[in-house]
Write a structure and sequence with these properties.
The structure is a homodimer of 461-residue chains. Chain A has 461 residues and is of the alpha+beta class. Helices cover 42% and strands 20% of the residues of chain A. Chain A has four domains: 132 residues, Beta Polymerase, domain 2, CATH 3.30.460.10; 122 residues, Orthogonal Bundle (Poly(a)-polymerase, middle domain), CATH 1.10.1410; 134 residues, Poly(A) polymerase predicted RNA binding domain (Alpha-Beta Plaits); 43 residues, no CATH class. Chain A contains 16 helices and 15 strands. A five-stranded mixed β-sheet of chain A has the order 1-2-5-4-3, sandwiched between helices. In chain A, strands 10-11-9-15 form a four-stranded antiparallel β-sheet, sandwiched between helices. A three-stranded mixed β-sheet of chain A has the order 6-7-8. Chains A and B meet through helix 10, strand 13 and strand 14 of A and helix 10, helix 13, strand 13 and strand 14 of B.
Chain lengths: 461, 461
C-alpha cells in the first residue's frame, strides 16, 4: 500500500515551483485587497483561507479564497455593500458576481480561480451570523494543528475522495469537503488509519474530535438521521459532515473496504467514462429495453448550490407522481450546465387500462368503499372478493401512457423547485430513446448520459 | 323482509305434488335396492339420506342419495365389491360409476338424479372409516331435530347461498354444504336471525352447537386458520364448515350485511351474467388494455373434486412463476368441463431488459454480492450505490416476453397437479386476446369468460 500512496503523492503534491507560483499569486491578491480597503476608506481585514492557505491543495486544483473581514457592528446591508465594493475594486472587469447564501466575486488571476468573499469578523465561532463567517475560524484551527506530514495525508484523502466521486460539499455533490478531509486526518493521524477505521463505519457514525460530548448519546440526539457526524471543533453544535449524503457515505465506506482488500491506484485515478457514440447509444438502449426520457430546459440563472437542490426536488416530484400512477421508475438522475436535464428511466411506458383497488378485509365495513366505486364512471368490474376475503374493484386507470403523463406533470409543476418551475413554464422538451442522439453533440450531456448508462463505482470501471 | 322471504319460499318450496312425486321415486329406489341386496345374498341395510330424506330440498334440485350400509367387519375391498354389485344391480345399464374418495354409482330414474353410495354402518360416528360413513349419522341427527318450519328456513338459506354463489362444499365451489346450512338454521333458529348474526362474523368464527368445547380457546387450536368453524354435533373433532374458503366466507358475510341493509330478491335470484358477443369481447378487452391468456387442454378423466384442486394448484404455479419473473398478474381463474382452462390476465406482457438486484445495506459486507454479479455475463451496470446506501446491480432480465415465459412454464410443469401435468404434456394451446373469440362457441366457456370479464358480486349485477 505504501508504494501506491507514494506514487499518488508524487502525482498530486505541488512541486516547489508550483508552490512558489501559487503563493506569489495569493500574496499579490491579498496585497491588492488590502490596498482596495484603504482606498475605499473601510475598516476591514483580509485573510487567505482554504487549501492554499493551509498547504493542502492538490497540484491541479489550487483554490485561493480571500476573505474580507468586517466588524460585527455593520448591518448586513452595509457589509454586503462594502464587501462587494472592495471585491469589485480588486477584480475589476474580470470579476463575476455570484450569489449563494451571500454575494461574492470570482475572478481569474494569472490563470488561477480566486474567490473574494466578504464576511463578519466574529470572535466566537458559535455566534456567527452566517456560514461564511466560520471559515476564518476553520482556517486558524487547521493551520495551528496541521504539520507538513499531516498535510500530505490530507492530500491523499482528498484525491481518494475525488477519485471515488465523493469529494466536495457543494449541493451538487453532497460529499466530503476539504475541511472535513482535514478534520478526519487530524483525528485519525493518517490516511491509512482512516481507511482502516472508515471501512467499519455504519450510518450514524459519530466522530467527536475534541470529545466535546462526553455523554455518548448526546450528539446522536442533536445530529439525528445524519449518516456521518464529525463534530466541528470550532463549533460543537455543527456537524462538519452535514453535507454527506447516505449514498456518498456508503460509497466512501465501500471504497475503504475494497481499498483495504486490494489497494490500487484506481481508487485515486479511476478510468474515465467511455463516451458513447450514437451507434453505441442505440446498442445500449436496445439491450436495456427500457424507456429513457430526458426532460430538458434552459438552466435558470442561479448558482449550482441553488439549482441542484431544485432539480432534485423536481426529480422527486416527477418520480413520485409516475410511481403513484403505476409507472415503475428504474432509475433517475439530474444534470445541468447551460441546459438542465431531468432523466427518468422507466421499466415500462404503457400500462393496462385496469387498476385494482383493494378495499377492507372481511371484518371491516365496506359500505362506503363499495358505494364510492359503484357510482364512479371508471368502474370496470366489482365489487368482487379476493382470496384474502377483501372487497376489490377494478377501475379504469387514468394514465396508461407515460409520455402523456409526463407532459401533464410538466404542465402542473406541483412540488417543483421555484426557479426550475419558472424555466419549465417558459419552454421544455422531452427527448426519448433514440431521440437522445441529437443531444450527443453537447459534450457535457454526452458524458452525463454515458456515465448514467454504464454506471459503475469508479474503481470498478 | 318477510314479504321477500315469503316470495322466495313460494318460488323454491316443493309443492305437495312435487313432494308426492319425489317421495314415490325415492321409495321405489329404496325398495329396489333392498331387493337387490336380498337377491345377491348380502347382509346390508339401505338408507335414504340427503335433502329429500330431510325435506330440505329445493324444488328445482331434488337430490336423492341412497346409502347401502354394510357391516364393519368387511374389508374395504369386500365393501366396495359388494356395494358396487348392489348399485350396479339397481342401476342396470343406466348407471355410471364414479370415484371420489370411494366408488359409487349415479343414475337417472324417472328424470331424477340418484346416487347409490356404499358405506360402513359405524355405530360411533367418531370411529368412521371414511367420510361417507358419516352421512347416515348426519341424516339421523338432522331428521330428529328439524321441524317443518325449520326446514323452510333451511330452504331460504340454501337459496340465499346459491344466489350469492357460495352453495356447495365440493372442491370446485368451496362453499356451504346442505348439511352446514341445516346446522346453521338449527343453531340460530331462523334465516333472518342467522343473517343478522353472520353479518357480524369475522374470520375465525366458531359455532359450537352442542357447547362441546366449554373452554373457548380449545376449538381455535384444533381448527386453526379456518375462517368458519361449525363443530359437527355428530363428531366434535370435525369442522362441518371445513370446505368454506376465506373468500366464500367473506362473500357470505358481505351478503348478509348488504341484505340486512336492503333486503331484496336479488340475493336469492341474481341476474344472470350477460353472455359476451365477439364484438362485446373485443370492446371489453380493448377497454381493459390487459393481456388475457387462456391455457387450454383436454380435461383429464377424473371427477371435479380431483380436477379442480389440481387446476388451482397449477394456476398457483403459473401465477407464482410469472410474478417471480416480474410479470404482475392482475387476476387469474380456472374452469373446466370437457376442456380445462387456466386463465391469467397480465397488466403488461413485455418487460424491459433490466432487472435491479438490491444488495446489502452499508453496514453489511457486499463482497460476495459484488463478486457474483461482476463475474456474471448478465451484468448491465453496477456496482452502484443507491440513495439508501445499498449496493445495487442492474442485470439482464431472463424473460421479457410473457408468452415465451408461459410456454417455458408449460414445458417445465413444475408444481403442476399430476393429472393436469399429464394432460398438458399431451397437448395444450394458449389463446390470447382476440384469439379467444374462437372459443366463444363453447357455451360453458363463453359463460365463464363473460362472468370473469364483468365480475361483480351476484347481487350487484
Amino acid at each position: 500500500m505504501d508504494g501506491i500512496l507514494d506514487e499518488v503523492l508524487r502525482r498530486i503534491k505541488p512541486t516547489q515551483e508550483d508552490i512558489r507560483f501559487v503563493e506569489r499569486v495569493a500574496s499579490e491578491i491579498i496585497q491588492r485587497t488590502g490596498e482596495a480597503i484603504s482606498r475605499l476608506g473601510f475598516s476591514a481585514k483580509t485573510m487567505l483561507v482554504g487549501s492554499v492557505a493551509r498547504g493542502t491543495w492538490l497540484r491541479h486544483d489550487p483554490d485561493i479564497d480571500v476573505f474580507i473581514l468586517f466588524e460585527e457592528t455593520l448591518t448586513r446591508e452595509e457589509l454586503e455593500q462594502r464587501g462587494m465594493a472592495v471585491a469589485r475594486e480588486v477584480a475589476g472587469p474580470a470579476g463575476e458576481e455570484k450569489f449563494a447564501e451571500h454575494p461574492y466575486v470570482t475572478m481569474k488571476f494569472h490563470g488561477l480561480d480566486i474567490d473574494l468573499v466578504p464576511c463578519y469578523d466574529v470572535a466566537d465561532p458559535r455566534r456567527i451570523k452566517s456560514a461564511v463567517d466560520r471559515s476564518p475560524h476553520h482556517q486558524r484551527y487547521v493551520k495551528a494543528k496541521l504539520t507538513p506530514q499531516l498535510a500530505d495525508e490530507v492530500l491523499l484523502l482528498k484525491q481518494f475522495a475525488s477519485g471515488i466521486g465523493v469529494y466536495g460539499a457543494e449541493l451538487k455533490r453532497q460529499g466530503f469537503s476539504g475541511y472535513l478531509c482535514e478534520l478526519l486526518i487530524l483525528h485519525y493521524g493518517s490516511f491509512s488509519k482512516l481507511v482502516e477505521e472508515a471501512s467499519k463505519w455504519v450510518p450514524g457514525e459519530v466522530i467527536d474530535i475534541l470529545s466535546y460530548y462526553s455523554d455518548k448519546s448526546e450528539p446522536k440526539l442533536i445530529f439525528e438521521n445524519q449518516p456521518l457526524v464529525v463534530v466541528d471543533p470550532v463549533d460543537p453544535g455543527r456537524n462538519a459532515a452535514a453535507a454527506v449524503s447516505l449514498q456518498n457515505f456508503s460509497i466512501f465506506v465501500r471504497a475503504c473496504q475494497d481499498f483495504l482488500d486490494r489497494p490500487s491506484l484506481r481508487f485515486f485515478f479511476p478510468k474515465r467514462v467511455k463516451l458513447l457514440t450514437p451507434a453505441g447509444l442505440d446498442r445500449i438502449l436496445k439491450r436495456r429495453g427500457t424507456r429513457l426520457f430526458c426532460i430538458i430546459f434552459r438552466s435558470p440563472q442561479v448558482v449550482p448550490d441553488v439549482l441542484y437542490p431544485q432539480l432534485r426536488k423536481t426529480e422527486r416530484a416527477v418520480v413520485t407522481r409516475l410511481a403513484q400512477e403505476g409507472f415503475e421508475v428504474l432509475r433517475s438522475d439530474v444534470w445541468a450546465d447551460s441546459i438542465s436535464v431531468i432523466l427518468v428511466e422507466l421499466a415500462v411506458s404503457k400500462l393496462s387500462g385496469v387498476k385494482t383497488r383493494v378495499g377492507p378485509p372481511p371484518n371491516i365495513s365496506a359500505k362506503d368503499f363499495i358505494q364510492e366505486h359503484l357510482s364512479s364512471r371508471n368502474c370496470l368490474a366489482g365489487p368482487m372478493v379476493d382470496a384474502a376475503g377483501r372487497v376489490i374493484f377494478e377501475v379504469k386507470r387514468e394514465w396508461t401512457d407515460a409520455l402523456a403523463l409526463l407532459k401533464d406533470i410538466m404542465s402542473q409543476r406541483i412540488s417543483f423547485g421555484k426557479h426550475v418551475s419558472e424555466a419549465v413554464s417558459q419552454r421544455y422538451r422531452i427527448y426519448e430513446g433514440e431521440g437522445l442522439k441529437k443531444l450527443l453533440n453537447e459534450s457535457g450531456f454526452r458524458e452525463f448520459l454515458s456515465e448514467y448508462l454504464t454506471r459503475r463505482l469508479p474503481w470498478y470501471r
